[in-house]
Amino acid sequence: MKDIIPNITMKELEQITFQTLRESFAQLMAQILIEYDELIAESRDKNRFQLKDKRNLRFESVYGCVELKRNYYKDRETGEYVYLLDRYLAFDGNKGMSPVVQDMAIELSVTGVSYRQASHALEKLLGYPVISHEAIRQQLLNTEVVPKDPEPLEQDVLFVEVDGLYTKSQEKNKKGKEIKIASVHQGWEVNGKRTNLVKKRHYIHKDNRPFWESFEDFLMDTYEYDPTKHHLVINGDGAKWITACREYFQHNATFVIDRFHIAREVQRIFRNHSRYRSIRKKLANYDVEGFMVELNSAVGTIDNEKKEERLEELINQLSQYPEALDDYREKLKEKGMNTEGFRPMGSAEGTMSVFAKRLKNGRSWSTRGLDKFIDVMVALKDHLEIKTLQGKLKQSQDHQEERNKEKEAKPPKYFVEKLKDSAPEAIRNNIGYLQHAIGKPVIGALKGLKGF
After folding, report:
1. Residue 322 and residue 182 in one domain
2. R_g of the chain, CA atoms, integer Å
3. How do the pLDDT tens digits run along the chain, 452 residues long?
4. Where is the composition biased (Basic and acidic residues) (predicted)?
5. Residue 223 lies in a domain
6. In b/e form, how buried is each residue of 72-104, taking b as 16+ CB within 10 angstroms?
7. Same domain, 161 and 216
8. Same domain, yes or no: 216 and 229
9. What is the pTM of this model?
10. Is residue 349 part of a domain?
11. What's the domain range around 207?
12. Do 165 and 304 share a structural domain?
């Protein structure tokens, strides 16, 4: 056996094969594009489109660099010079990359750690340096999010989780800013052990108007929301801009203080205190009166000045709206609303951690760069249409849906047959090792690949 396959590992074999196939399919892609261009040239309106010459097309694809010459026309009606191949394929060859590479780069940059990491990830995935981190940033800056039409509400209650996230500024002598974020959903859906939020959407506050005024416009633009009919359950911490929802919406909203923040503050103050368990239990059981009594009676019993100050601040905060500690479901029942399937609020912290992971961690932003990045990040999460330099971005989920549809609607028979016929010719004799002397052991190992 050693005489047949010496000095080659499975990893090396896989790398050789992948590199060879990548180069071969880049050639195949070029060949198919040339044939498309010829078909377009033959069937075009010759009275309108005058063939001028052929010009280079070079772009990065998932296979590597694809190069060819394509026809260049003058449109006699408009006076413009066009590439009909690009027009037929909804592709701008002058941008230097395929739509698939562009979509992968943008999605990786938003869902990953950074632009630079997205560039490195593509290089590792595809085996060659595809696009720089700065080029990815420019691609993202040239996107546009297309809003959806308002969608109907399945019930009279909407759930809102609100929080703020501080970001740093790249500009000298300019302070960072707090990004105010609201996530909205229509309830909970239980799938086995998993619970998903129904039709979750995100709102980012950008204008100079009060938060809740702009947010109400967002609700009307996003849903068939009627302020006189629909009720909001709003969960957030005690920031003034959040608690202002009580005055703005009044009886049309129920404010819930975020229990995660309260529980965390209780832990920080009372972790080693004898009353810690009792305080936590009353908070968990929605015993508001008992909870507030425990907090007040604990004043002066903590052997730490800073913790005593934090306790007094917590008591003062909660004393302004003790009703916000109640179970909101009981309040809705009192209003005659059906609360079946409603669960405790508290996804705000999870939402903010997702945004913080990408926007913070020492990063600083320009105003335009931050606004555009958040727009695309929200669009990906909410599955909104994103226009790019190459058309419409296809998210990984969209690609999966398309693959499922392909089972019902297959590609044109001509295209499939042409691809099958062209592939063997395109990859023939492209593995250099196979051209060497037959007696060499590595050649014997790679000869087996000829049947694939």
Report:
1. no
2. 30
3. 455 555 678 888 888 888 888 888 888 889 889 999 999 999 999 999 999 999 999 999 988 899 999 999 999 999 999 999 999 998 888 888 898 889 999 999 998 888 999 999 988 888 888 889 999 999 999 999 998 899 899 889 999 999 999 999 988 778 888 999 999 999 999 888 888 889 999 999 999 999 999 999 999 999 999 998 999 999 998 899 999 999 999 999 999 999 888 999 999 999 888 889 999 999 999 999 999 999 999 998 988 899 999 999 999 999 998 899 999 999 999 999 999 999 988 876 777 888 888 888 778 898 899 999 999 999 999 999 999 887 888 776 554 454 454 445 555 555 556 555 655 555 555 545 445 444 444 444 444 444 43
4. 395-412
5. yes
6. bbeeeeeeeeebbbbeebebbbebebbbebbbb
7. yes
8. yes
9. 0.78
10. yes
11. 150-257+345-364
12. no
Q: Do 226 and 269 sit in the same domain of this protein?
A: no
Both 208 and 290 in a single domain? no
Q: Determine, yes or no, domain membership for 49.
A: no
Q: Is 214 part of a structural domain of the chain?
A: yes
